[in-house]
Amino acid sequence: MKPAARTTKKPSPVAGKDEAIDYKNLELLAKCLSSQGQIVSRRRTGLNSQRQRELKNAMKRARHMALLPFVA
Question: Does position 5 have pLDDT exceeding 90, yes or no?
Fold first, then answer.
């Protein structure tokens, strides 16, 4: 049997940076959306729980202000 192929994790667009997560930063928020318009999980973004909550609230605020789509 072949050993399982190892995949490398992509660097997170948010993790490790001191950049503030803000609803006006659409470039950053768009990187954390899946192709269906859903928020990507913590496992994929590499964020801690506090930063993930900030991301969630920024996404909701941007969607409410019609800066981001609810569904792609």
Answer: no
